[in-house]
């Protein structure tokens, strides 16, 4: 996919950290970042920078910082005291590979490195400060961490649609929002209307993504998905499909995708990729 | 102590985070920050700002950010997969009080909030960027986290003096260094000579502090210390006292204290408090 090579190259450079004698944590950080997925968030950062009329290159440190925060959240999420997942994308999760204490520190290290990476960007200091504030606020207790808390708390009860939507808006949407906002900030955008359109795109995309995930867990093809289906039902997880049914979920995903695409109209630069990206995510089979 | 009330008030404001429905993590963050110790690091930040000719008030967000990072490191350090400590300063540790998953997230939340707090300072953006870079670099895998890794690794062997000194320089010294540097940065200092003197003060103080800790574990008075003595020997921990003996340790602590105080000579502002602070730490009984 577009940009992915550049992102991987940059991540690999940021993660080359010479620390004589204590390499195990940098190794664990690299292991988890390199076991990456589609790099959805950093691609969004670069594309939004372009959509605002900026150069994608300038937003690369911001894009990498977002991916580091995403990866740290997965490492900590997989820990025994959280979801206790032994595998992540078909490979042993970080704590299975390196042990729990080093996985904990690898997550901490990535979160810390994310902010160091933001601050290293060749951009005006005032824009870097806005990026630090935006990323911290989206990733913190009023954002992504708050979503994880609600998710943990909801396991004790039966969430309704409003709560499910809120969990997703914080747990997944907040970091998507940070990704697009950092793209805009890298392009020097301060116009609140444009920033709000970016937020709308991110939140609509984030929610549509989760709904499609829930649909695929019911209707997906195991060989295409690369993971077993039916896991939500097995785990008695309350999902959008369980609350709304398949038909309503498909309609909602389409509606959200349309909303995301409409939000792109305000942007001065090329948004063709972002539009087709939203469309593809909604019809994906895996 | 000087500044402590102002620091506690500011911390309390930063930690008043309205998050409807997911208060447990902000509660856990506040619990651990409010179970604070002497606020050594934030006091250093404010004092170094003054020593450089700045207003202590201006450095308050930086000082609070340092204390948040210190507290996050204690929360994660106490977790079962790390030191597995049930108590911290006589109260249940964060995971004992709130459960392991919320303690993990409280640590993550504090680390994230630290950078948000830096970015909120009413200081030139370029100085905030330097503060972000300094704090991230001192707290990350080449700094504090690296020290924790070395500490974990050293449990499997018998560290010598050089390794013990390196562990302390990273695990404790790096954040002390960040504390004093952020004070200088808040005062607008860019002169490398002055920044290096600040580093010398922090590193000498940090090492002296640890050596005195090791001495007190052997010679201290339980009622004054507020914790049992002899724990290092019981845990077969390799300490400075075990490697060098009591007499040499006392001499080394004095030498380091003198070095810290000499490093203050270059500063234009009032350093009387910083000098007596170093002296007091070296002769403390608890």
| CATH superfamily heading of chain A | Farnesyl Diphosphate Synthase
Q: Give a short account of the largest sheet of chain A.
A: 2 strands, antiparallel
Based on the coordinates given, report the CATH architecture of chain A. Answer: Orthogonal Bundle
**Greatest contact between two chains:** A-B, 53 and 53 residues
Number of strands of chain A: 2
| Stretches with pLDDT under 50, minimum 5 residues of chain A | none
| Shape field of chain A | globular
* Spatial sequence of strands, sheet with the most strands of chain A: 1-2
Overall residue-averaged pLDDT value of chain A = 94
CATH class of chain A: Mainly Alpha
If you consult CATH, what is the topology of chain A?
Farnesyl Diphosphate Synthase
Helix residue percentage of chain A: 55-70%
Could you describe the 3D structure shown?
The structure is a homodimer of 286-residue chains. The first copy, chain A, has 15 helices and two strands. By secondary structure, chain A is mainly alpha-helical. The two termini of chain A are 15 Å apart. The model of chain A has no long low-confidence stretch (mean pLDDT 94). Chain A has one domain: Orthogonal Bundle (Farnesyl Diphosphate Synthase). Helices cover 70% and strands 1% of the residues of chain A. In chain A, helix 4 runs antiparallel to helix 9, helix 7 (125-139) packs antiparallel against helix 9 (161-186) and helix 9 (161-186) crosses helix 10 (192-219). The interface between A and B is large, with 53 and 53 residues.
């Amino acid at each position: 996919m577009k940009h992915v090579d550049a992102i991987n190259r940059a991540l690999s450079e940021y993660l080359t950290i010479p620390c004589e004698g204590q390499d195990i944590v940098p190794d664990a950080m690299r292991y988890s970042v390199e076991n990456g997925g589609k790099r959805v968030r950093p691609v969004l950062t670069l594309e939004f920078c372009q959509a605002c009329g900026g150069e994608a290159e300038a937003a690369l440190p911001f894009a990498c910082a977002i991916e580091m925060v995403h990866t740290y959240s997965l490492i900590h999420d997989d820990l025994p005291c959280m979801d206790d997942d032994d595998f992540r994308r078909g490979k042993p999760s970080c704590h299975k590979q390196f042990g729990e204490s080093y996985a904990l520190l690898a997550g901490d290290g990535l979160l810390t490195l994310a902010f160091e990476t933001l601050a290293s960007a060749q951009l005006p200091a005032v824009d870097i400060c806005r990026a630090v504030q935006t990323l911290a606020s989206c990733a913190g207790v009023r954002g992504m961490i708050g979503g994880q808390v609600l998710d943990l708390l909801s396991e004790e009860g039966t969430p309704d649609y409003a709560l499910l939507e809120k969990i997703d808006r914080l747990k997944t949407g907040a970091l998507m929002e940070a990704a697009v906002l950092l793209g805009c900030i890298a392009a020097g955008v301060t116009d609140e209307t444009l920033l709000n359109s970016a937020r709308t795109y991110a939140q609509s995309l984030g929610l549509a993504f989760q709904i499609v995930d829930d649909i695929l867990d019911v209707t997906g093809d195991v060989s295409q998905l690369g993971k077993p289906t039916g896991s939500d039902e097995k785990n008695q997880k309350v999902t959008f499909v369980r609350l709304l049914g398949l038909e309503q979920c498909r309609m909602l995903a389409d509606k959200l995708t349309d909303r995301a695409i409409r939000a792109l109209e305000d942007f001065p630069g090329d948004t063709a990729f972002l539009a087709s990206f939203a469309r593809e995510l909604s019809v994906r089979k895996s």
